[in-house]
Amino acid sequence: MSLFHTRLNQCSQRPEGRPRRGISVVEVSLVLVIGAVAVYWVPRVMANMEREKATDAFDFLNSVREAQVDFHAQAGHYAASLSQLDLDRTAPIHFSIGPVDSTTDAWSLTLTRAGTATDNKYTVIFTEQGFDSRRSSVTGDLIPQDLLSGQFVSPDLIAGGWAGRPDIHGDSDR
Fold first, then answer.
1. Residue-number span of the structural domain to which 125 is assigned
2. For a disulfide at 142, which of 44, 54, 94, 104, Cβ 3.0-4.6 Å?
3. What is the pTM of this model?
4. CATH of the domain at 89
């Protein structure tokens, strides 16, 4: 062996007890794979979490609607505040609740998404007829599927409310 190769081998060997320097290809590959998985899955997990929060808002507003129907049947007018209603659900913690706007024949309640890290705040508005898609700013991907089948709204509101809101169906062809 030449003197060059001998010196090269001596330089590449590390003394006992001394940590090795640098990172291996395996370590770099592992970091890249973890990063790719995070880039792919984190937005999906966050979207699912937001969808669950929106569903909580819809469930609460549907509970308010049912309680308003009962209150109206007994009192002849709609309740002016949530404290007058016998609600079976608690208010969703991720939304600020607006005042109940009520008259003898109508009411509305607005929930506004609070505490978002970005400016993606949205509103969900219910009336005596159900979900008010015209005045709500919630996007179609956050609307529960059972809403689209009519659980939360009257058929009249579905027919009239979707006009001008192609985002509710997720595309602009409808």
1. 24-168
2. 54
3. 0.67
4. 3.30.700
